[in-house]
Amino acid sequence: MRRLLLVNALIFAVLAAAVALAYYGYSYTSEVSSRERELELMHDLAVEKVLNIESLIADADQKLLHEVPINPLSEQLDKLIKATGARVTSVFVLDDKLQLVPNGNVSRRPQKEGLEFRDWFMAHVVPHLPLASQPVNVRGHRHAQWQRNGAFKPFVFSFMRRVASDRTFYVVVEDDINHLVMVLFPQFFAMSTSPRFLYQVVNEQNEFVYGTPFTDTSGLVVEVPFAETVDGWVLRVAEKDTGGQSALERKHLVDSLLIGGAIGVILLGLVFLAFAIRRERRLNELKSEFISNVSHELKTPLSIISMFGEMLAEGRTKSPEQAHEYAEIIWRESVRLGRLIDNVLDFAKIERGKNVYEFTDTDIGEVVERACDLA
What we know:
The chain is of the alpha+beta class. It has helices at residues 2-67, 77-84, 111-125, 177-189, 244-313, 320-352, 364-374, and strands at residues 88-94, 100-107, 140-148, 151-164, 167-175, 197-202, 208-211, 217-225, 234-240.
């Protein structure tokens, strides 16, 4: 009875563990799906931010490059810059031989610094710009770290190939990176616009350019590169941790412990089942052996009773004493047979757990004598 209760309890525990594993599997799948949706949302947000910033710069540059007067250059530049919204520091107009046209440079730098920058630009930048291969009236750009005054600094140059009076000209503008970092980035990445997220911009050397360090994120981070302005720079967006990450980590710890316990229960159940099957197989073998032995033991007294009963029935006795002896043998074997049957019934009761024993004092000699008689 106790073994049956133990088996039932273990079966219930294994089923409960299996249900728990199924639940945690479903919970994990739902969590992964939710995480993927959150990452997709963050990626779409980052792409939107980058596209808006780059569209603002590229559209203004495109308009300015297309409308810059070839000659004279300086008369309407400030007016054009204000009209187009472009934020540029220098403007250059080159002829088809990549030389400055007369009055082909305007700079917002001080005069001396502007002239130095012009000479540096013609010597170090122009040879690396793909001007000759640029399609007509299409904006191109080049962002890189150029060495100037003994230090490497980032520059963004936008350029356009234009044709006027059957002559080819190239208009190149130097975009104002400081305006990008100091004005546009704060405008688009202010915490008030997206309080759930943190923003960070790093350059091609993975150096911090703008934003806040990611020290309190929820672990979800996406990266979107800039492609139309500051190539190589990357916008990183992370979900701000509002306390949910700590709770999530605790939940993962508890879930891991429970899953480990459920797996342990299932393994224990499998081990117990293996032992139970082995024990049941052994019991079946013992039962078969017992039945075989009992059959043999039952045949012996039955054969004796049958033989002596037949002799008495046919009168094959020499004297009344011999008949009495045969009758005594039949009685003794009948008693032995009855005891064998009682033993079989007792065994059946023991197996069902229904046998009740009454213990009393007895003579050991009598027990031994009875055993010898039955042997």
